[in-house]
Amino acid sequence: MNRFASCLLLSSFLVSISNAEELRYEDLPARIDQSNGRVQGARFTAEAAESRVGHFGRSFLPSVELNLGRESFRRGSAGTLTPSTGWGATARLNLFNGGRDLAEDQVLRSKSELSRFEQILGRQEELSLARMRFWEVLAFDERTRILSEAAAMNEQNAASAERRIRAGIATEADRVEFQLKKVAIEQDLARARADRGIALSRLKVLLGVGDQDLRPIGELTHLHDWEKEFSPGEVNLLPLAQKVEAQAQLAEAVRSVSAKSWLPSLDLYGGFVQPLEREESGTPSDRRETYLGIGLRFDVGSAVKSGVESRAARLERDAATSQARFERSRITEELKSQVTLLRLLHSQLHEADENVKRGESYLKLTRSEYGRGVKNSVDMLNASERYLDYKERRLSLLLDFQATLVQLKASQAR
Predict the structure, then answer these.
(1) What are phi and psi of 353, to 5 degrees?
(2) Cα separation of 151 and 309, whole Å?
(3) Which of the chain's ends, N or C, has fewer CB atoms near its CB within 10 Å?
(4) The pTM is what?
């Protein structure tokens, strides 16, 4: 590729970068809340569940029915058609419903609470995915820089090999060694750029930005004082623990409804009606009826069904309670594991920093000895690869550190 083409490609790349919207790590929560489809859907679901709360108060509102009808009828085959008008207004007021109204209201409250915690957890899952994709993009950017450094280093070593070949102290095998390495580096570079594009596309889907150009900016590093950000707190207050507790409360509320389904209901009812003449003979004023009463209803069949449903609901409640205990224990151990792993990765990162420095020093010594003819091309390649491997190892540890920290934050809904 000539210099003009290289400059043209570089200019195009810089133009595309300048037109892309910059995205920082701290911008992710707001972007997820604003544009993520799953988060928005969960918010609507939670609002819908909240709007249903208050069933107990609404159950005492009277049920009013109005009707109006007009027809023509005749009696017998020889009679004439007689017009008739009927109307009526009836009302029924709940006085006592066996306690089911209050129990059903508790079911709706439990569903609302459960929906709220599911919204929090769903948001945290999407935010965690976005954070991981963000760090992956920066990791592939860093890997691209490492491989670009490797390519430049290989070119430098190849040029040194050419001088040694011309001086008669190296063979054609040295040239081939560096040519093979060049192809391998170019392949790795192409893969790193492709992986970066895939990670960025997945990040854009999570942020709901469509075809908009994004450029994640920042440094893939690790916090030295990360433990200050970690507050263990009470496990029962964590969203996942609260969700499973809400599931147990919902199961208990459903059991309560089932247990009360056999109890009688007491209603106050009344009406002012004028039936159709076909239904009741007489003048319109004679057909008018006014009534007011109180009624007690008891469904015998419900008493049998109630026992079956109540036992089933009690078992479901026990299952949800048992699951809640298990989840609290699991969450506690998961948090401990994440903290332990972060401490280990933090220590290994400091060791990796030192190894990178050692690898760079070893590479400089080997390059100097290679130039004097003490080392051969294999020695030079090994020193270069070891140095780059140390940098790749450090990059891998950084990504593992950030991934574990993302999981820890997700566990705390942060």
Answers:
(1) -60, -45
(2) 72
(3) N
(4) 0.76
